[in-house]
Specification:
- It is a single chain.
- By secondary structure, the chain is mainly alpha-helical.
- The protein folds into two domains: 127 residues, Four Helix Bundle (Hemerythrin (Met), subunit A); 38 residues.
- Helices cover 75% and strands 0% of the residues.
- It contains seven helices and no strands.
- The protein is flat.
- The termini are far apart.
- The relative contact order is 0.07.
- The mean pLDDT is 78.
Length: 179
């Protein structure tokens, strides 16, 4: 059976950073620091995707999670204006129950991995996660749905611009029609 230290060093370092950031997200008292640690955890997960030769997933993870969702979290935290005075007092029983639950979950996951003998698969497909292959499939097998989705996105953007645009001419035309 493979030991933990037979794994590549970059994987171990990134895993350590990811777990450390995730623990800081959960244990931090400051919500802004928690969100920033979550962004760093998403960056390290994207680096894991790069190590797995899945560059497309890494970029999508960065754009969707570290970009859009984390900006949304930061805006929500800024709008909530959390004060320590308004925080309800929590009992210590919940923390103890959460620690016991997390320990039991860790025990079950460790036992499941040792029982199954998880191994790292090293296949001959070195370029399986490349964007080049995804583009080739999209432009050959799925060209019509890809083009239709592009037309749908363009029409949605045009509709959003037209709805968001404020015209003073339309208001004056409505006023002239009523008189």
């Amino acid at each position: 059976m493979n030991s933990l230290f037979s794994l590549p060093l970059p994987f171990l370092v990134l895993s350590f950073i990811t777990i450390l950031c995730a623990l800081y997200v959960v244990t931090s008292k400051n919500p802004v620091h928690s969100v920033l640690a979550l962004i760093l955890a998403f960056f390290s997960i994207s680096a894991h995707y790069v190590l797995l030769n899945a560059q497309f997933l890494a970029i999508v993870n960065l754009m969707v999670y570290a970009g859009a969702i984390m900006v949304l979290f930061l805006f929500v935290l800024m709008l909530l204006n959390l004060n320590k005075d308004s925080e309800p007092v929590k009992s210590k029983i919940w923390g103890i129950a959460a620690t016991i639950s997390a320990g039991m979950l860790l025990l079950v996951i460790t036992a499941a991995f040792q029982k199954s003998g998880v191994a790292i698969y090293k296949g001959s497909a070195d370029d399986i996660g490349l964007v080049k292959n995804l583009g080739r499939v999209l432009m050959t097998d799925y060209l019509v749905p890809f083009e239709l989705s592009g037309i749908l996105f363009v029409s949605a953007m045009v509709g959003a611009v037209l709805l968001g645009k404020r015209e003073s001419n339309s208001e004056s035309l409505l006023d002239k029609g009523n008189s």
